[in-house]
Design a protein that fits this description.
Two copies of one chain form a homodimer.
Chain A lengths: L8 H20 L4 E3 L6 H5 L7 H5 L19 H11 L6 E3 L4 H15 L15 E6 L3 H9 L3 E8 L2 E2 L1 H10 L3 E6 L13 H9 L8 E5 L17 H7 L6 E6 L11 E4 L2 H11 L8 H11 L2 H30 L5 E3 L8 E5 L4 H10 L2 E3 L16 E4 L6 H22 L1
Parallel strand pairs in A: 1-12, 3-4, 3-6, 6-7, 7-8
Antiparallel strand pairs in A: 2-9, 4-5, 8-9, 10-11, 11-13
Chain lengths: 423, 423
């Protein structure tokens, strides 16, 4: 392939004409494809149908005779706590089971922090003139939306394959008492697929923070969502924080949204006993307890970590061909042209493409013009502001494989067209 | 029966000796009974087993083909919105379906009000030097706990059979801009069983409030939870508020916790379109949406309001004998003795007993001494402070009928013993 930056005027015109023709063909096909969100497809959801079918679907008593239909159980039924403690790498008393949304638990934790703080000794964040969060970017848009909603100032931090730029994180956290936290998706990060290195985990656990009530929001949404046969390991941050003498620094989150059902999974929060006590003391004002029937279903269906792991292999078998298609099309269409780089994730739900500077919004608009909706430009950055306008998030799991191919070919054509105009 | 206040010294000693003997007998029986909360019993929960069994339990597609297993649907699936709009007496676009807890929706609404206010034009309540709520008392303890948790000053308002003392409510609301709301359980009120009269509803809708962003928290938890064959009607507050030109004054809440499953029901919030838009705009930062599978189950199982109403008759058949037992035992044991008055609710989950002043805590302690746990003294009042120490909340639904009888006999014995010592 030819480096687009070194094309002659003639080559350039010829390539552009071919691309325009291909683009016009896409338009004629009247495609309507939505790739905006990381949603599982129906075949993935079918994998967990056993959870609502037969004996498991009809179960309501725990092995110890607790009636899951009735009130109670603020932090979860014991059987589910044991299973998901294993999942999170914590003890059962370091964990709270929530409703169907871990985002909800994160949102509530920060909203409460604004009104009540995060520990006995510290004032509510909302009483401070300013609260800031470190935001490794590109990152998860909904994390950033929570901060924007609550007026928390976001400081973007560069991301690499091994996690956030820890030199910046350490320097900022040590210097500014208004910096109260950092958002992390430590494994198969949304959208870059980064897996935090052991060194990054250790540095997060050990760094000095000017705010004594600094909290790491550790959204381990893709803990077991592997695409590779030999998945990379992630160091346990809670353990590292304990060893570093900072046991209360981390709030960990997880969910089964992309294990069982996206809309009817279980949300999990974990951390030190002291933190979990702090949270349940406050949750007691909010609810009598989450849906225990759904906890029971999960426990009976998955049984143990082995059950979850073998279930995730079935997910991978469905979605890996889609990720492979994304890679091979990007490779075929763009490699060597010096106009884009993209992630090759070993798990998770996204592929992240970096175009030339100033091209991403135009590419996304062009793709929409031929019927393929991508995540809006800038979404992966604080304030929806991608400073270099170069990041595109691809979510290939939901559409059928053939549609993923069509969409990616179109995206590749759009990237080339916009790049040619830019160069 | 003899008025205890008119007993001779001799009669008094004799009666006391008999009561002490009866109390000692209860102690010998080594009872352990928990009547602290208004929980449905297992037979009631069995009534809704069809919701998790067979085709309904396994359903995941709405009639229009929406996959309830996946993400989406912040305010509820259309079919469930139609059913519960009918239930709440509102239009489908005046309603939001939540998770399994209406308390959660109330809590979140107030917490958001503290941080973000309740309308575009009004400042967040948390920025004011003081926020106050009117609290008709006795009332629902968890309402009061939310206020206490958030530092909202509670002003008790007397309750009568037709609702709160509206003269006080109107006078206070008109005078004090810091009074931002009132808690109401308008039908079969917890714990007195009061049903708000049409006049009270009209006055709430029409009264002048000094705070332009005053909100009525209308927790209609027992809307269809009748014990009587000809249940009393409750005027529709949203409609009344619209007619009064105050359409945004009310947040209505409901739930199926005591219709389907206490721990796995549906929570509902309703109000003006403008209010619901305000709430969903904020909920969008909190969650992708509640559990739609559970909404689908409810819709398929109950079908329509007729389905809910006939289902509630089955509940009544199970719990009415327990309420009847409470009434007949209180009547047999206490009537004419001039030491207690009690509610005769036509629905809901509680019977409220008023003892002589200064007796309630001692009665509750004495009952516990013989193995029957009642709701802690003062629970039904702001700051857990029953100023006259006279209210006892009886929750007869959960224990088996025979246990209800035993517990009520014991309670009656305790009331007599404590009263004798008090007189």
């Amino acid at each position: 392939m030819t480096d687009f930056k070194k094309l002659s005027q003639e080559e350039r015109s010829k390539i552009k004409a071919e691309l325009l023709e291909r683009y016009a063909e896409f338009q004629l096909r009247r495609i309507t494809l939505d790739m905006t969100r990381g949603k599982p497809c129906a075949e993935q959801l079918d994998l967990a149908l056993g959870m609502i079918e037969g004996d498991i679907g009809e179960a309501y008593l725990t092995p110890n005779g607790l009636d899951c239909r009735n009130y109670g159980g603020l932090d979860g039924i014991p059987e589910a706590k044991i299973l998901f403690a294993d999942y999170m790498g914590v003890e059962p008393d370091e964990l709270i089971l929530g409703g169907n949304s871990s985002l909800n638990m994160m949102h509530d934790t920060i909203l409460r922090a604004m009104v009540k703080g995060v520990a006995d000794s510290a004032p509510p964040w909302g009483r401070l003139p300013k609260v800031k969060f470190l935001c490794p970017s590109p990152g998860y848009d909904r994390h950033f939306f929570i901060c924007e909603y609550l007026g928390i100032e976001m400081i973007p931090i560069d991301m690499s394959e091994g996690g956030p730029d820890m030199d910046s994180v350490e320097e900022l956290a040590a210097a500014d008492a208004n910096i109260k936290g950092i958002w992390c998706v430590p494994k198969y990060s949304n959208p870059t697929g980064a897996v935090y290195s052991d060194e990054v985990v250790e540095r997060l656990a050990n760094m000095k923070t000017r705010a004594p009530d600094f909290r790491i929001f550790w959204d381990n949404a893709y803990a077991v969502h592997h695409l590779a046969d030999s998945p990379p390991a992630l160091k346990n941050l809670l353990r590292a924080c304990k060893q570093a003498g900072n046991p209360d620094r981390v709030f960990m989150f997880g969910s089964t949204s992309k294990i069982s059902f996206a809309g009817a999974g279980l949300a999990i929060m974990a951390g030190s006993q002291k933190n979990m006590q702090w949270v349940t003391n406050q949750m007691a004002f909010q609810t009598i307890g989450p849906d225990k029937l759904n906890q029971l279903r999960h426990t009976l269906f998955f049984k143990d970590m082995g059950g979850i792991e073998s279930h995730m292999k079935k997910h991978a078998a469905i979605i890996k061909p889609k990720f492979d298609a994304v890679q091979s099309i990007l490779e075929n269409e763009l490699s060597g042209k010096n106009i884009a780089a993209w992630s090759k994730p070993q798990g998770g739900y996204f592929v992240s493409i970096d175009t030339l500077e100033g091209c991403a919004a135009a590419v996304i608009e062009k793709a929409a013009g031929a019927g393929v909706k991508l995540t809006p430009a800038g979404s992966a950055y604080p304030y929806k502001n991608d400073p270099l306008d170069r990041n595109i998030r691809i979510a290939p799991t939901f559409p059928p494989l053939d549609d993923v191919r069509v969409a990616m070919e179109l995206v590749a054509v759009c990237i080339q067209l916009v790049s040619l105009d830019k160069i």
